[in-house]
Specification:
Number of strands: 3
CATH architecture: 3-Layer(aba) Sandwich
Strand content: 5-15%
Strand order of the largest sheet: 1-2-3
Structural class: mainly alpha
Largest sheet: 3 strands, parallel
CATH topology: Rossmann fold
Order of helices and strands: HEHEHHEH
Radius of gyration: 13 Å
Shape: globular
CATH class: Alpha Beta
């Protein structure tokens, strides 16, 4: 599984998750974590069809409010309802350059 995900991330220009189950969430959070660790600088987003990812957005916003997630890292995960809007958000996006905490 890990080798497949690493190969997909290597070949991709951007990473987009469609609505899905536990496997999709696991893959999304892994590449989100890779972004925070500086392992890639690719745009990352979810296609938020019918508000499917609203709960995840609320969870991440709460993690920021509780100071478990930096706002700059939270901003790396984009959510839009249409593919065109998501790709527009990706246009020109660059990750924040933060000092490592370790």
């Amino acid at each position: 599984m890990h080798e497949r995900k690493a190969k997909m991330a290597e070949l991709a220009d951007a990473l987009i998750a469609l609505p899905g189950g536990a496997g999709t969430l696991e893959e999304l959070i892994e590449v989100f974590t890779w972004s925070m660790l500086g392992l890639h600088e690719k745009p990352l987003g979810v296609l938020n069809v019918n508000g499917y990812y609203d709960g995840l957005a609320a969870l991440l916003d709460n993690a920021v409010a509780q100071r478990f997630l930096r706002p700059e890292h939270r901003a790396a995960l984009h959510a839009e309802a249409t593919p065109a809007a998501l790709l527009e958000r990706f246009d020109g996006w660059r990750p924040s350059k933060l000092a490592k905490w370790l």
